[in-house]
Amino acid sequence: MLRSPLQTAPEPCRASLVVLDFDGTLTDADAHAPAFHEASGQELACRLGWDEPTLRREWQRARAAVTGLPPSAVWVADGYGVCPAAADAYMIANSVTRMLLSEHRPGLEPTALTTSVLEVHHAAYQRVPPPFRPEAHSVLEELCARVRQVCVVSNSETHTVTRLLDSLSCRGGERLIVRGGAGKFSVCASATADARFESLPEVVNWPEVGRPVHLRRGRYFDLLRQTWDENGTGPEATLVAGDVFELDLAMPAALGAHVHLVTRASTMIHEERLARRMARGDAGELASVLERIRG
User: Fold this and answer.
1) Could you tell me how far CA 63 lies from the centroid of its own chain?
2) Are 259 and 185 in contact (CB under 8 A)?
3) What is the reported pLDDT for 6?
4) Domains delineated in the chain
5) Is 216 in contact with 191 (CB distance < 8 Å)?
6) 275, 86, 80, 254: which is closest to 183 by C-alpha?
7) Strand partners, 177
8) Alpha-carbon gap, residue 189 to 194, rounded angstroms
9) So what's the pLDDT on residue 295?
10) Rounded CA gap, 6 and 97, in Å?
11) What is the model's pTM?
């Protein structure tokens, strides 16, 4: 649902449930980028048997190619274009890793290639955990104090996200629900028949994106449905906040949830425009999520 020509602000949000993405939303992906790219390169070099000069040369060459791609370039998972190839620092690193593995291990089948990329990603993430945004602590404390339920739904592993959140020592943090392995990249069916999911169009064509956007992310929907069932609520009483529109917000927005794009210095401008065009959407820094629930 898009805003009417006369609507200048998102529809009022009376959320009883706030769902937050983790990486890039509560954490500072831009600040994490140099260390994460360094760690990704080192992990890749171990697998390819490269020395340091070879790694530096090849990583810089591939990174220049990835960052030079147009915004319409996509990350492909299981044959579907699922988000911009350079959506954030992690996608850039993963795209560089995929490019270099494709060139230097040309015999890898698509599934094995994806598995190898994710192995490099997870190993790098464990080497250098991400820093939180400076305001993450205060935002989480206020959300836990004001909203009936706050849930973090992430592609990262549950135990990793839980450990990092515990390190913040937020008041009320024991009330946070963490669900990892969200599979936001996975275009697939839901595990259980649900009319809400089945009513979603398979693709939408938003002019800002310039290519079809696949909405049916079944694994992600299953985690959202679990949270709605436990809280006796639904999309209309939910605010979902994330930093990559296509992964975090596109499906919830189509289901009728309120959505908020948490911006970074590197946020793609077309994603911010699209978030602001949604009837129940907006965009801004992490702290601006609080304005949505205070309204």
Assistant:
1) 21
2) no
3) 66
4) 17-28+132-294 (3.40.50.1000), 30-127 (no CATH)
5) no
6) 80
7) 151
8) 10
9) 61
10) 45
11) 0.94
* pLDDT exceeds 90 at position 221: yes
Q: What is the pLDDT of residue 39?
A: 98
In this prediction, residues 235-250 reach a mean pLDDT of: 97
- CA 83 → CA 169, 187, 207, 275, 290, distances in Å? 33, 11, 15, 15, 27
**AA identity, residue 78:** D
- Minimum mean pLDDT among 6-15, 115-124, 187-196: which range? 6-15
Q: CA 225, CA 194: separation in Å to the nearest integer?
A: 9
Residues 96-129 have pLDDT tens digits of 999 999 999 999 998 899 999 999 999 999 999 9
Rounded-to-integer distance, Cα 3 and Cα 154, Å: 28
Residue written as token pair 């030079």: 68
Cα–Cα distances in Å, from 252 out to 60, 64, 67, 247? 36, 33, 28, 10
Distance CA(262)–CA(253), nearest Å, equals 15
Residue (of 48, 70, 71, 52) closest to 60 by Cα position: 52
DSSP line for 201-249: -SEE--TTT-S-EE--BHHHHHHHHHHHHHHT--GGGEEEEES-IIIII
Determine the pLDDT at residue 263: 98
DSSP 8-state assignment for residue 75: E
CA atoms within 13 A on the CB side of 136: 24
Q: Over the stretch 150-176, which tens digit does the pLDDT of each residue have?
A: 999 999 999 999 999 999 999 999 889
Dig out the tokens for 41 from the structure. 């390169």
Q: Which residue is listed with tokens 């994106």?
A: 209
Closest by CA position to 124, among listed 96, 103, 102, 165:
96
Q: pLDDT by residue (tens digit) across 42-95?
A: 999 999 999 999 999 999 999 999 999 988 899 988 899 999 999 999 999 999
In this structure, the number of other CB atoms found within 10 A of the CB of residue 128 comes to 16
Q: How far apart are CA 80 and CA 77, in angstroms?
A: 5
